[in-house]
Structures are given as C-alpha cells and as structure tokens.
Design the sequence.
C-alpha cells in the first residue's frame, strides 16, 4: 500500500502517518520525491485500515501496488533512483563504467589493471577478493589481502571499488573496504546475505541468478530495500539456456523491462553474459542501446594467465576501444559517459 | 576443407586445383577475394590428406573446417555476403528495415500499413498469407488472396515483399509472388522445406527455431545453400527459456556470434524476440548496436484489432519514432539507414 501525501503536506503530518503505520505493526518507507512525499507501507498490512489513513491531515489518497515487489516497484517510486558513489552519480543520464579483473591475483596485477582501466575511462574498479568458484579446487581469492590491495588502488587511482561479499558475517568487514558490495549470481537468493546488506548503508550491485526470473530478481532487491538500504543496482549477467555456444544467454530483454518495472539503476555485465571476449564489446554497445545505466566489464592485462575468467576478459587496449564505442552509442542515446575524476598523483612504481 | 591460393597464383594454377577437386569427387565453391582466392571443398573430405593440395603450385595453405557447416562458414567465404532484392542490398553498411503486419488481414489493412511503413522509411514490406498458428482454431491467413494483396502493395509502394512459406509444395506458388521467402521458426528444421527453398532463386529469410541452437541454425542455412541457393539471411527472433515474462528471450549474443561464424546477413526480430510492443524499440536499437544488418518489425495500424501478434505490433507513429532513433544510432555505429 502507498499513502500519497499532498504536495503541501508538512513534516509533522508525514511524521504522524509514519508513526501510525508503525503502531499498526507494519513498516513505513517514506519516499521523498521532488513534488510530493509518499509513504510505502510493507510488511504486515492486514491490520491497517485504509479509512483511518485517508482521514489523516496531509494525506491525499491511498493506492495499492499490484506487483509483489513494493519498494522496488516504479509504482511506489516514479522517479529513477540515483545515488552517488565517489564522484559519480549512478542512475542518472550518465553511464557508469566499472572495470577490472575478475579476481585480485596480486598487488602488481591489480595496480596494472587499475591503471589501464582508469586511463581508458573507467569510473569504478572491480576485483574479486572472495571468489565463489564452481570447483572447490579452483583459486578462491586472496581474501582480506585482496581487499587491502583494492583499497590501495582506490587511493592511488581515485577510483571507488566494487567487490563481492559471499556471507552475512563478512558484510561488515567488506563494507569497511568497498564502496559497492556485489552480491554474486549464485547468492541472489541467499536471503540471510540479502538481509545483512540491507542493514548497512552502502550501495549494492545485485546480480541476477543464472536460473532466476526478473520477478525473483526484483524480490531479492526488495529484501535489501525493506531492510532500509535503498541503494541497489540490478545487474543482468546472462541466464542459463540450452544454447551452449556462449557461457550464458544475455537476456537483454531484462534491461528495458527492469527499467519499466523498477526505479532502480540497471547495470549490464557483458563479460559473464557471453563468456567470450570477442562478444563483449558488441554486447556492451547493445546494453547501452537498450537503456542500461552502466556496464561492468572484466579486464586483465594478460588474459591467458588469468586465474579466473580469462576467456571473457578484455585486454586493456580492447577495453579502451570498448569505452570509445560505448561513448558514441551513449551520445546517440542522449546520454553521457563522464570523464573519470583525476587521480591525485600519477604513481606508476608497481 | 579450404584451399587458400597465393596472391601470385595464376589462372592456370587455379584450374589445376579445380581439376583435382573434380577428380577426387568433391565440389568446389570459389570465393575470389581481394588478395587471396579461396576454394571451399564440400564432400567426403575426411579421407583426403591436406597434402593432396598443399603440394600444388599456387596453393598457399590448406585447412580443415572444424565446424559441420561449410558453405555458411566465414572461413569458406571471408567476405560478407550481400543479397540483392530489387534495389535493396542486404548485408551492406546500409541497414535494411522490413516492416508490416504479422498477417495480411484484408486489402485495406495491408495497403494502409504499407503506406505507413513506407513513409516512415522501411525498405521491405512483410505480411503473412500462410500463417503457422499454435492453435488450429486461430486465423490461418488469407492464403493466395493474401499473396495477391502483397503483390499489389509492392506495385503501389515500390517495396519488395517478404512472406512465409510453410510447405514444400507451396514454394513455387509463394515464390511466384514474393521477393523473399521466409522460413518460420517452427520450420527451421523442416528439412524437406529447406531443400525446396534451396532450389529456387529467391532469397531465403531463415528464422531461428524456438529451441534451435546457433549451430543448428547454421546447419539449416547449410541445407538451403547445399541445394544451390546461396542467398540466406539468418534471423534471431528469441528462444525459449524459463523466463516467461517475455514471449521469448531475445538471444542477442547470437548476433555477434553469427556474424563471426558466418558471412551471411544477420537480421534481428525484436517483435517476436520480446512479444511486447513496449520492448520493441529498445531491443531493436540493441540489435543494431550489436551488429545486426537489419530488422524485421511488426507494424499494425490498430494493434488492438489485429488477428495475430497485436501485443507485439507497433503503431505506425511509434514505428516512425523508432526509425528516427535508429538513424542516429546507425550513424554512431558508422552505418546508415
């Protein structure tokens, strides 16, 4: 249920509505829009009497949200959600480019990649420290050491960092280092983890599970939003189908649909969606043409030596070409790719 | 197997290679390139050693093609295939837009739509006369009457026409009206039909089956080509997955994959690829951004009254807007509309 406040309602009137929702045992989520405020009511709503709220001062009307996802729905929040990460706005007319290696393998590998992607025009540095690998015998990531290397790269290159968190008990520790927490595809329905990232105030990149529907993705976003963390990005990264020529099938239909159903920023991952480096650039272009707010791309200086995802990693020069092409598509779509913020001092002694 | 001739190879060298191909009981497909001439060999090549050609004068190298599709393979034919339909070239820098109603419902409906899509800048008119419907109780198309309306629209609006052929015995009839023969998704592996359209001299628009793999689509193209028709377009129109929010899942990966694997033109069908008119515009743009050579789009003057596919049909005005947006995008990609 959504309680739409009048355009001239006062803070006290909004406060009274919020208090009454709480008293009825439900959770109020006020959304302060440009024109008016709405209070989304989720949780146990059976004891709520719409009549009582309709009569309250400052209330214009009550509506219900038909979708099972409420806070993630565009019905509750007509404007696009935007938030800042470092100096960049996500979800606005600007396109955000996140890039870096699949795994942090060593200090020199990460710094070399960070340097290259920054030069090419990436805004945010990605790198996995805790890796969910299909085989227990594969490289599992550098763990805490990887986070420290990422934090160092952030300082040197003035780039916010995104890295994956795999378990609820690691959330606090990773949030100390990372600017964006990534929930991987295999954890899209790890509800304990979703609860945990919902309780902190740090942007989350939520990847669609390889066997999950768009509605399930939005329900997982709802878990995070309902915990009080409204900074969620939805990420399409390919789904599993009968087609084995590519690692996954990039469900590009999801990009315009998620933008229609939800107000949250939508990011595309052409690296996992294809699994083939030679398809990453055309799919990055396609994602932007379909309306994505950004991309996350795997880049490795020596893909043939990568400890993970080598076949889908771009070499730095190919990534630079990708950024140039994405800029042209963005311009044709009336969007922009901001120039990266300058790094404090050009440090190259890795 | 592919024989790559040296840039310096003489006509005589080439003839000698072709003679040996003949002696060995193989079929040669010549692809003259800017520097190298390439001879694609089809037949029982497994038993022939590379040496049989490698030692011949003028031969640079001989390679085996690992994929089971040969004539459709880019290794056989490195240059993009360009298909000429009337004065429209398909597979070139200039994108080709095919538009029209799902079904030809009446003369006036078709002419009204043809007029609208022509005005918006479409190059080729689509319309189904023989309709493969999931239910036997649904409208099955106007048949030959529909073909006549299409032919009339072609004359009035000077647009080549594309329409579906469903059965081998109807190929001659449909080919007598249509400029392009469409093989629908449900017939991608109807091998008799593929053989039949392989024997006519009309380009074929081959749609990927709902559960056809990329390689299976290329093998179906191979059927058409092996029967003598080299003019095949490959069409991505969405595949079946567990996601049912959309009618199909548009497998956009297929576009760069097909362009890499094959020299044939690749067309995107965002109408069937999504099943929802609201998604047609963004997915049409994405298909072009991914490298498609053209699009097929369903347009109906009154989608709410359409006999078929109303939910995924664009109104003429939206189609016009899409065309304007595609023009800007095409330019950003170094292509044209």
Sequence:
């Amino acid at each position: 249920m959504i309680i739409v406040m009048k355009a001239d309602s006062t803070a006290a009137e909004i406060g009274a509505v919020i208090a009454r929702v709480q008293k009825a045992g439900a959770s109020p989520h006020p959304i302060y829009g440009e024109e008016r405020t709405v209070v989304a009511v989720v949780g146990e709503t059976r004891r709520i009497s719409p009549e009582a709220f309709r009569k309250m001062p400052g209330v214009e009307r009550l509506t219900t949200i038909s979708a099972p996802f409420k806070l993630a729905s565009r019905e509750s929040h007509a404007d696009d959600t935007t938030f800042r990460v470092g100096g960049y706005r996500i979800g606005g007319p600007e396109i955000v480019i996140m890039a870096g290696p699949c795994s942090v393998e060593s200090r020199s590998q990460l710094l070399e990649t960070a340097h290259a992607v920054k030069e090419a025009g990436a805004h945010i540095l990605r790198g996995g420290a805790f890796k969910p690998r299909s085989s227990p015998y594969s490289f599992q990531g550098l763990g805490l050491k990887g986070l420290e290397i990422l934090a160092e790269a952030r300082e040197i290159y003035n780039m916010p960092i995104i890295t994956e968190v795999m378990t609820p008990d690691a959330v606090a520790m990773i949030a100390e280092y990372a600017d964006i927490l990534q929930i991987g595809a295999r954890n899209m329905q790890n509800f304990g983890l979703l609860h945990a990232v919902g309780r902190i105030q740090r942007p989350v990149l939520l990847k669609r599970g390889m066997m999950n529907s768009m509605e399930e993705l939005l329900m997982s976003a709802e878990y995070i939003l309902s915990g009080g963390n409204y900074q969620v990005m939805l990420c399409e990264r390919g789904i599993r189908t009968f087609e084995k020529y590519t690692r996954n099938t990039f469900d590009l239909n999801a990009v315009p649909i998620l933008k229609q159903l939800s107000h949250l920023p939508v990011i595309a991952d052409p690296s996992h969606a294809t699994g083939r480096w030679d398809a990453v650039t055309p799919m990055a272009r396609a994602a932007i043409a379909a309306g994505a707010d950004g991309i996350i791309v795997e880049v490795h200086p020596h893909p043939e030596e990568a400890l993970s995802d080598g076949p889908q990693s771009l070499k730095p020069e190919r990534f630079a070409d990708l950024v140039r092409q994405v800029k042209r598509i963005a311009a044709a779509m009336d969007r922009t790719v901001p120039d990266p913020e300058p790094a404090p001092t050009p440090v190259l002694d890795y | 197997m592919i024989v790559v001739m040296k840039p310096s190879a003489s006509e005589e060298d080439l003839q000698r290679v072709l003679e040996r191909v003949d002696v060995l009981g193989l079929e040669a497909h010549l692809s003259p390139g800017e520097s190298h001439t390439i001879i694609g060999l089809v037949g029982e090549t497994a038993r022939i050693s590379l040496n049989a050609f490698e030692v011949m004068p003028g031969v640079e190298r001989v390679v085996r093609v690992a994929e089971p599709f040969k004539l459709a393979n880019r290794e056989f034919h490195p240059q993009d295939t360009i298909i000429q339909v009337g004065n429209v070239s398909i597979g070139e820098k200039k994108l080709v837009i095919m538009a029209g109603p799902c079904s030809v419902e009446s003369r006036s409906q078709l002419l009204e739509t043809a007029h609208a899509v022509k005005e918006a800048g479409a190059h080729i008119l689509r319309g189904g006369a023989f309709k493969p419907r999931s239910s036997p109780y649904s409208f099955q198309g106007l048949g030959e009457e529909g073909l006549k309306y299409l032919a009339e629209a072609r004359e009035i609006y000077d647009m080549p026409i594309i329409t579906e052929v469903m059965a081998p015995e109807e190929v001659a009839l449909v080919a007598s009206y249509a400029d392009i023969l469409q093989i629908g998704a449900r017939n991608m592996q109807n091998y008799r039909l593929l053989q039949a359209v392989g024997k006519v001299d009309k380009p074929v628009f081959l749609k990927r089956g709902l559960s056809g793999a990329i390689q299976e689509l290329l093998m179906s193209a191979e059927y058409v080509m092996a029967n003598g028709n080299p003019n095949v377009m490959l069409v991505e129109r969405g595949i079946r997955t567990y996601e049912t929010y959309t009618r199909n899942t548009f497998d956009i990966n297929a576009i760069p994959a097909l362009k890499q694997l094959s020299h044939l033109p690749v067309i995107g069908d965002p109408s069937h690829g999504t099943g929802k008119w609201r998604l047609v515009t963004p997915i049409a743009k994405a298909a072009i951004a991914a490298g498609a050579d053209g699009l097929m789009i369903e347009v109906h003057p009154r989608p709410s009254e359409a006999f078929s596919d109303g939910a995924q049909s664009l109104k003429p005005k939206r189609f016009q807007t899409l065309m304007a947006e595609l023009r800007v995008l095409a330019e950003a990609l170094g292509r044209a509309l």
User: Anything to note?
Assistant: Chain B touches chain A at residues 211, 213-215, 239, 241-246, 249-257, 260, 273-274, 278-279, 282-283, 285-291, 328-329, 331-333 (CB under 8 Å). The domain at 2-63 of chain B is CATH 3.30.70.1140 (Alpha-Beta Plaits). The mean pLDDT of chain B is 96. The radius of gyration of chain B is 21 Å.
